[in-house]
């Protein structure tokens, strides 16, 4: 059970539940953003703390939220983007484990982090050293390069979407969320945050990975100089500056900035995409080469070690051991209609049926895949739909798997868990096989009874 920490870190007792979204028990509000509210919540299936981000369907400048029928396209975009983000597994990208629809609307469940985002830190007066700024931006560039290799462009890189869990350890938030904001606020509006948008975003032109390079260059400029590259007293003034104003070189604003580093930032902020580094990987390489040439810029305990792009099993356990875990994926459509339609945030949903825990494994298979294999295949998994209420001749299989697994039932792949958390199965015996790269497959025989739930729990690793 969650406990309320005191100022000195000691526990003061269990946290009360203030509401319910999906299967998650909301414990306290973390904050509000343009797209919704973020809560700390408990996941009862995996006994861990997560962050829940809700989707606010109040268009910019509106006084009332969208009507129910008008919400469906935005929910679909939100869940589609969450589905894509679930494919990302990188040390500098926040972990997304689950997403779905509840009576309160769409939500994302993600890794709960300790720390502050860059915007909050900068507003508090924090200024990184030159070496720290370069390390932070290089690691964000590595994360973006990884996402770009999966076909995902962020489109809203800004300090508020870079969360710091250490002085040089960033995690990128909100992949794909700019698409939802764009669709929600109006058909012709630009998507992104105006101070950090690329000129092609302002002009509603096609975007690509170099769009993220521009935005990251603007963040680098701000970290180095303490000033935003593009300012204005209105949206029109800011976007006009983005398209036509060339900010002074960073070394002209701050004499602490080496000219070579100022040139890297300026090139990243080039107005034309073809004049920027061709990719986030290229920007990362430029920053790495600068650090190699200036080792004195790094303080004790800081290093420019390369970022591992695929450390899924080990890293996932590490993130779980910290504070919480996360959210989404392409199985988001499964089992998300279990909450009653009239459920309110103040009323947790009671269990709808008895749950049996399946413990006795079937004879395990011996197949072990490569430790470096990706948890998600290059092709999308089979499409899934919202699970209807169990029919008279069916029951529900609930899944609580850590850190993740590909799920097979009777030899047929059903998707990845998380976020897949339940399946409707016909009455009878079924063989459930869980596969996680680097570990032996785990198989278990499950007896499904009518209108009853069976919970399968398994942890890969120690």
Automatic annotation (TrEMBL):
Transmembrane stretches, start-end: none
Region of interest (Disordered), residue spans: 362-389
Domain Protein kinase: 24-291
Key word Nucleotide-binding present: yes
EC assignment: 2.7.11.1
Enzyme class of the recorded protein, top EC level: transferase
Keyword match NADP: no
Domain of life of the native organism: Bacteria
Biased composition (Low complexity): 364-389
Pfam families: PEGA, Pkinase
Keywords: ATP-binding, Kinase, Nucleotide-binding, Serine/threonine-protein kinase, Transferase
SMART domains cross-referenced by the UniProt entry: S_TKc
Any GO MF annotation of the entry: protein serine/threonine kinase activity
PROSITE patterns the record matches: PROTEIN_KINASE_DOM, PROTEIN_KINASE_ST
Listed name of the protein: non-specific serine/threonine protein kinase
